[in-house]
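Handout for the seminar on molecular recognition.
Each group receives one record of this type.
Step one: identify the two inputs.
Step two: read the structure output and locate the region that could contact S-adenosyl-L-homocysteine.
Step three: write two sentences on what you found, then compare them with the reference statements printed after the record.
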Amino acid sequence: MPEATKIDIRAQSLEELRAFFVQRGEKAFRGNQVYEWLWQKGAHRFEEMTNLSKALREKLEERFVINHIAVDQMQRSADGTIKNAVKLHDGLVVESVLIPTETRTTACVSSQVGCSLDCRFCATARLKRMRNLNPDEIYDQVMVIDRQSRLYFGRPLSNIVFMGMGEPLMNYPNVMKAIDRITAEDGLGMSPRRITVSTSGVPKLIRKMADQAPRFNLAVSLHSAIEETRSRIMPFNERMPLSELREAIAYWYDKTRSRVTYEYVVWDGVNDGDADIRALLDFCRAAPCKVNLIEYNPIDDGMFRQAGESRIQAYVDALEGAGVTVTVRRSRGKDIDAACGQLANKSTGPGE
Ligand code: SAH
């Protein structure tokens, strides 16, 4: 078969792979072996599948291709953070970040090339959404970072956050399939408790996800609990208002019993007033939650400025006073544009 018409083998289910062998007079379990090579060992070449005969590997090669990502460029920050520009099989580029701390290594992975949402403060929003990533392209980012973690920090990857480029819930089926392969026993076997899906808040899909009773964590990029303010900084909020988000989060908690984390940046003159704090406290009553106050990473144009220390402290005091767990998170990898909201393929050019 000419290369271009070959089938992407990682788009095949286990059942399809088993059927492929049966149709050729072979044992079905050969399909399981191939599936293991693809999703447990992360093989990128049929030659690696050494428990299959050469003849069988050639049969696979004739029919299928293993598309995979390649690290195009790697940058290391003074604080140890590593940013990878990874090239997809069709030449598009996304970014994935390795964030080391004393005790853990977190992979921050992308779910889309670009993003279709329009958060005013986010660099990725300025890129056009080109396409969704496939499950294998998400899985491969995890494998790349696991390898780097072992190489540079002498330990395996411990956590995964879907906080790279894109809106994971706008690529729902592929993100769920990737998480399935990352957590499955016949996949990477990672605990779902160590995975966090971060969404800007798509109520319908939060509900859909809750219905699956997932065991991973959910983070919601809230940034304001006042309808008009949120619509100003995250215009899609007009179509998916806070009132619906609030109900969807209550539904999520009801189904999963898992506390949601709100990500929240406090900006000067945007959401740093007492009314903003009161609205957040009220929003926090929707369901048990935590609040992560994240540092703003400026993205060039100076439209937004992080609020002063005292306003951030006012948030912390009010939240703690109301019994809500709050953490203030410092940015990592800022010097290489690897921090939240800074992923924009700067070094390689958009989608190149
Ligand atoms: N689309 C998803 C995941 C990607 S963004 C989401 O919105 O959650 C990951 C986090 O970075 C989000 O909480 C987002 O609001 C935040 N973020 C975006 N731009 C930022 C910036 N310039 N500074 C700090 N955080 C930012």
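Reference statements: The chain has a mean pLDDT of 94. Residues 119, 121-122, 163, 167, 198-200, 221, 263, 265, 294, 296-297, 299, 340-341 surround S-adenosyl-L-homocysteine (CB under 6 Å).
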